[in-house]
Amino acid sequence: MKTHSVYRSRSMQLLSLSAMAWACAPTLAQGVSASADAGAVYQRERAACLSIQSAEDRATCLREAAAAQAQRRKGVAPDDDAAFERNAQQRCDRLPGDDRKACVARMQGQGSTSGSVSGGGILREQVIVVPAPS
Fold first, then answer.
1. Which structural domain, as residue segments, surrounds residue 123?
2. pLDDT for 6-28, tens place per residue?
3. What mean pLDDT do residues 87-103 have?
4. 63 with 87, same domain?
């Protein structure tokens, strides 16, 4: 009987260790494979760009994929929310007065949104009623 309970407790230990290893593996591998993942992401982005029919759009897509890869190498995530917010603000800053305010409002989610990046762009629209001059 003792051998059986020792055997069972050994089995449980091995099972527990195995489960912990499987649970921790993605986290441990994440640091090691970060550069490999970045390379794989770039290859996927590049492949998607090469499938674009228009030469001009393909060139733009490839430039953006290369720029995103360069950012990843520097340690800056291109999908960083803060960077997205900064980019949106900088795009709106180029507009004059009321147009800038409307742009910021659209970027903050006011109005309607349609389209997709893969479909060629996202259209953000906000209807502002301006009374006719009297």
1. 81-134
2. 444 555 554 444 444 455 445 44
3. 89
4. no
Burial 13-37 (b: 16+ CB within 10 A, else e): eeeeeeeeeeeeeeeeeeeeeeeee
Residue 117 has pLDDT above 50, yes or no: yes
DSSP string, the chain: -HHHHHHHHHHHHHHHHHHHHHHHHHHHHHHHTHHHHHHHHHHHHHHHHHT-S-HHHHHHHHHHHHHHHHHHHHT--TT-HHHHHHHHHHHHHTS-HHHHHHHHHHHTT-SEEEEETTTTEEEEE-----PPP-
Residues 94, 132 within the same domain: yes
- My answer on whether 91 and 130 are in the same domain is yes
Question: pTM, whole model, 2 decimals?
Answer: 0.40
In a domain, 67, yes or no: yes
Let me know the angle formed at the C-alpha of 97 by 85 and 123, rounded to the nearest 5 degrees: 50
Residues 6+ apart with CB under 8 A from 71: 77, 78
**Same-domain pairing of 87 and 97:** yes
Task: Copy the structure tokens of residue 20.
Answer: 């912990």
